[in-house]
Specification:
The protein is mainly β. 4% of the residues lie in helices and 62% in strands. Strand 15 and strand 16 form a beta hairpin. The chain starts with 6 loop residues before the first helix and ends with a strand.
Length: 298
């Protein structure tokens, strides 16, 4: 893809952290807890380029669902068990790009939260299926995992560091670090991937924010995907999908532990990288998006 966006330097620092420092603080409570996260978003048409062989406009719908139960064990640690589902659906016009219609994953969540040397640590594996789901074989089975930690320097300042490992990704090991800092009574710098943002605490029930959203996943396409696109090297190929959004929104704390986020902005970067087949499809311009996120903890 032509363009000056520093994709490879950013991808080396992107870690798909499934935790935030405030979430890990539940370790100290020693009580069973759970969380349900769901979101839906739509991205309007963005022009994408298939090298020099074709171009088209691609729109997207995405869905996400996470259900996890955290159970305390001896020593103050928590065992995390649950399930996660992610789905991207793409529509292109004309149908000339080497893109799957769907990328999705369905995985278990198997993890441990514990405390080591003053750090709150999370170790988590997500064995499951990551692909276009057009192939009924087990070829799309994978088990990425993360190791991360948060160091609480006080109620207003937490440091976060970690590493994500996926042996099927073009770059298997991705480290990252971040910080959450309440720098004033109503202002928070939440520089933690995958959703770094700058927050303004409007009142007890509403937070306004602006920031980014980094989406990264590795999937396996079907055995006939390449044949359908006149490139047999793409049959059963792995594709690294990357998407970067920039936007603003509001988080509303509803009844009990229910939170709702409404967000809008621009998808500024999207890439499908079939690195082992030396094929890349990327966007030439951005597309507007809207998103709703629902979180419930208990």
């Amino acid at each position: 893809m032509n363009g000056g966006f520093p994709f490879h330097s950013i991808r080396r620092t992107v870690l798909v952290l499934i935790f935030a420092a405030c979430g890990l603080s539940s370790l100290r409570g020693g009580q069973e807890s759970g969380e349900v996260d769901a979101d839906y978003s739509f991205v309007g048409g963005a022009r994408m380029q298939n090298g020099s062989t074709g171009a088209g406009t691609v729109s997207e719908q995405s869905n996400f669902l996470l259900c996890v139960l955290s159970t305390p064990v001896d020593g103050g640690s928590l065992i995390r068990t649950g399930v996660e589902w992610q789905r991207y659906s793409f529509s292109q016009a004309p149908v000339s790009l080497m893109l799957p219609n769907t990328l999705q994953s369905l995985s278990l969540v198997l993890g441990l939260d514990t405390e080591l040397w003053g750090w709150l640590v999370r170790m988590e594996a997500q064995p499951g299926f990551y692909g276009d789901f057009n192939d009924s074989s087990g070829r799309c089975f994978n088990m990425p995992f993360i190791l991360g930690g948060a160091y609480l320097m006080g109620e207003d300042l937490q440091w976060v560091a970690g590493v994500s490992v996926d042996v099927q990704r073009n770059i298997p090991v991705l480290p990252a670090a971040g910080v959450r800092w309440k720098c004033a009574d109503q202002w928070v710098i939440n520089a933690v991937l995958p959703r770094p943002r700058f927050e303004y605490l409007l009142n007890k029930t509403a937070t306004l924010y602006t920031g980014g959203d980094f989406k990264l996943g590795t999937y396996r396409v079907g055995g006939d995907f390449g044949s359908l696109h006149s490139n047999n090297s793409l049959n059963n190929a792995f594709v690294d999908y990357t998407e970067i959004r920039v936007g603003a929104g509001a988080e509303i704390k509803a009844a009990g532990s229910l939170k709702i986020d409404l967000e809008a902005g621009c998808m500024v970067y999207r890439q499908f990288d079939y690195s082992r087949a030396n094929v890349t499809v990327g966007n030439d311009n951005g597309g507007a998006y809207g998103q709703i996120v629902v979180n419930f903890s208990f």
